[in-house]
Write a structure and sequence with these properties.
The protein is an alpha+beta fold. It has three domains: about 15-80, no CATH class; about 135-250 and about 315-385, no CATH class; about 260-305, no CATH class. Helices cover about 15% and strands about 20% of the residues. A seven-stranded mixed sheet has the order 3-6-1-10-9-14-16, with helices on one face.
Length: about 400
């Protein structure tokens, strides 16, 4: 519609042709016709636009581009929950350069919003995997059976000796590398050294899936178990941020999900237990029992519950320490709440780890022989530990 310049005096009676031309001029203004007046810059402000007056239907495709949006014009406070969805955004519209640093934080990501489908192939690298490490050691020339801290979550252990002439052996004199007695899986190895003046170490890195741990006296950041002979000498050691029963026991205690509140959650099946089968059951009865167990588990419901310290310690009395029960030695747990253990943990975190074992093997730490009133595995003595000053 073309724009027509009109002039008429005040109070004049307009003719039909003038009225038509005036109406056409309004259309010309809206169409931004040549010669038609235009609104001044910033004439229309947000206060002139009614709430929800402009919807997706009023916005032409690709009408809004980044060049039309002032810097910092859109903030989280201006976005109504759920208003901006992926269907309203062009492909690749949001890229790293368009995001302000730290604008996306954990509290802005919905629970379960990021799943395996949202993670690109090869996107998770070594640096994104949270691993810790632990070590076991011995000065004994006879094979000592020791539980590795990583259990089912551990990588292949590596060995070393305390000196250039020392030789660390993995295995026993009969050629047996490991042994487990009973029905519980455990990552055990035989370890010994060529001469008692040396120390053999087995170092293992493993996935950290369940810290922190609390035996009942507060969160314990580090665990040192010692196997002591009758003279008070350290025969074998275990040092790690994880107690041996966590990853070596039959109970699954690895978190399936971490909440934004820092709590850990685990999924478990809820079903009606099948009555135990008699010891003298026939083959047919055993098969029927297995089928009943199978049906019960197939109909189970999945429940997500918080992973509590009690659940993490479910196998504590089953695997109270990392050593084989033998005559002539006494397993103890050094007080995990002791300041000395915190010192040793800090040394471990800033070194290779095995060095703190050497401090204990070489007598730099006094290990007590009086039980402390600490909570821990049934029947295991928990003792004090202090730096030797003389």
């Amino acid at each position: 519609m073309a724009w027509t310049n009109l002039t008429f005096s005040f109070g004049a009676v307009l003719t039909s042709a003038q009225m038509t031309q005036l109406d056409d001029n309004f259309d010309a203004i809206m169409a931004k016709a040549s010669g038609a007046p235009q609104l001044a810059a910033s004439y229309v402000t947000t206060s002139m636009i009614a709430t929800n007056a402009v919807t997706a239907a009023e916005i032409a495709a690709n009408a809004i581009t980044t060049t039309k949006i002032a810097t910092d014009a859109i903030t989280t406070a201006k976005i109504i929950n759920g208003q901006i969805t992926d269907v309203k955004m062009a492909p690749n519209a949001v890229t790293n350069p368009t995001l302000v640093a730290d604008v996306v934080t954990a509290d802005k990501i919905a629970t379960d919003a990021v799943t395996a489908a949202e993670i690109a192939a090869n996107a998770v690298h070594r640096s994104e995997i949270y691993t810790v490490s632990g070590s076991v050691s011995t000065t004994n020339t006879l094979p000592q059976l020791l539980a590795l801290p990583g259990g089912a979550e551990g990588f292949y252990p590596i060995l070393k000796s305390s000196s250039a002439t020392g030789v660390a052996y993995w295995g026993s004199s009969s050629g047996v590398a490991a042994k487990v007695q009973g029905t519980v899986y455990a990552a055990n190895i035989y370890l010994y050294v060529n001469a008692s003046i040396n120390t053999a170490y087995a170092y293992q890195e493993y996935l950290a899936a369940s810290p922190p741990y609390d035996l009942g006296d507060g969160e314990a950041p580090f665990f040192i178990f010692a196997n002591m002979d009758s003279q008070g000498n350290v025969v074998s050691l275990y040092a790690a941020d994880t107690p041996p029963w966590v990853y070596n026991g039959p109970t699954k205690v690895t978190a399936d999900r971490y909440g934004k509140d820092g709590k850990q959650y685990i999924k478990r099946k809820i079903f009606t237990p099948t009555p135990p089968i008699p010891a003298n059951a026939t083959v047919a009865q055993k098969v029927a029992h297995k089928r009943a167990v199978l049906e019960a588990r197939r109909s189970a419901t999945i429940e997500e519950v918080e992973l509590t310290p009690l659940m993490k310690n479910a196998d504590m009395d089953l695997i109270p320490h990392p050593f084989e029960n033998k005559a002539g030695v006494t397993p103890v747990l050094l007080d995990p709440m002791s300041p000395t253990i915190i010192d040793l943990m800090d040394l471990y975190d800033n070194g290779e780890g095995e060095d703190i074992n050497g401090l204990l093997h070489d007598g730099y730490i006094n290990i007590g022989n009086t039980p402390l009133p600490r909570k821990g595995p049934a029947g295991l003595m928990i003792v004090d530990a202090n730096w030797r000053l003389t």
